[in-house]
């Protein structure tokens, strides 16, 4: 179902009346790694909207490597994301970490995110395949492109064709960056599938200094969208502060991005 052999034309994934991913317009989803408070998510939403982002991101259920790290605000976080949407009009994407809470997350959100750690959680993939929400599927950290497409197939074979593929860096021997952002995945995926491709340079590099250059490169390489972590106070973020852009830096990046998007 994901293959280009069966469907030649690019798929458009519609989020709401304003936002459609996979068409001419580059879609930018931005916001904090985790929802931390009402002020934090609303301030983030207003800032990313002002800079030109079309969607808000924010985690309410966090799949943390350590069980002792902040696990997210859960349903309270979903409510705050909905409030931020009310204030700004931005639809939001948020992660779903297990089949049990998938329906709850879908009730609040505009798009479901499957994180890298769950990219081969087949029960979860099947579950979101049965829900009526677009799904942003992240590439697992050790996943081949073929395995990535098979995970998309799990969602689509349950009836949900609104799948967006997100490259967010893979594990290599390199330690200078958190992950190795595989930008070659863009043309490779474009050759194999009609599904839209989004790049997440925040998790891809793990360092806010590297985020803007990778955004420009992703657009030049043909990405349909970007997912960028932005936090009003990265030094005190509950998660992923080191890779989060301050709102002013994000706004400057968005300004420069227009030049690359126009040329692409
Ligand atoms: C996230 O988007 O905050 C996240 C946990 O991403 P990933 O699954 O790519 O690590
Ligand atoms: Mn994060």
Automatic annotation (TrEMBL):
<dbReference type="GO" id="GO:0016832">
    <property type="term" value="F:aldehyde-lyase activity"/>
</dbReference>
<keyword id="KW-0808">Transferase</keyword>
<dbReference type="GO" id="GO:0003849">
    <property type="term" value="F:3-deoxy-7-phosphoheptulonate synthase activity"/>
</dbReference>
<feature type="domain" description="DAHP synthetase I/KDSA">
    <location>
        <begin position="16"/>
        <end position="257"/>
    </location>
</feature>
<dbReference type="GO" id="GO:0009073">
    <property type="term" value="P:aromatic amino acid family biosynthetic process"/>
</dbReference>
<protein>
    <submittedName>
        <fullName>3-deoxy-D-arabinoheptulosonate-7-phosphate synthase</fullName>
        <ecNumber>2.5.1.54</ecNumber>
    </submittedName>
</protein>
């Amino acid at each position: 179902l994901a293959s280009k052999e069966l469907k030649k034309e690019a798929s458009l994934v519609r989020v709401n009346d304003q936002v459609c991913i996979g068409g001419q317009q580059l879609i930018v989803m931005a916001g904090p790694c985790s929802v931390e408070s009402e002020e934090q998510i609303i301030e983030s939403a207003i800032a990313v909207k002002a800079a030109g982002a079309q969607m808000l991101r924010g985690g309410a259920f966090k799949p943390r490597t350590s069980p002792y790290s902040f696990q997210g605000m859960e349903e309270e976080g979903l409510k705050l994301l909905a409030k931020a949407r009310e204030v700004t009009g931005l639809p939001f994407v948020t992660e779903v970490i297990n089949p049990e809470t998938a329906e709850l997350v879908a009730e609040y959100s505009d798009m479901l995110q499957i994180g890298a750690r769950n990219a081969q959680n087949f029960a979860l993939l099947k579950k979101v395949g049965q829900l009526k929400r677009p799904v942003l599927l992240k590439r697992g950290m050790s996943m081949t492109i073929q395995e990535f497409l098979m995970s998309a197939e799990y969602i689509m074979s349950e009836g949900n064709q609104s799948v967006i593929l997100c490259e967010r860096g893979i594990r290599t021997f390199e330690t200078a960056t958190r992950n190795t952002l595989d930008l070659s995945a863009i043309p490779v995926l474009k050759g194999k599938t009609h599904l839209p491709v989004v790049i997440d340079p925040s998790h891809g590099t793990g360092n806010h200094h590297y985020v803007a250059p990778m955004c420009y490169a992703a657009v030049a390489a043909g990405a349909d969208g970007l997912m960028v972590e932005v936090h009003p106070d990265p030094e005190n973020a509950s998660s992923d502060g080191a890779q989060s852009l301050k709102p002013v830096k994000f706004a400057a990046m968005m300004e420069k991005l227009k030049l690359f998007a126009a040329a692409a």
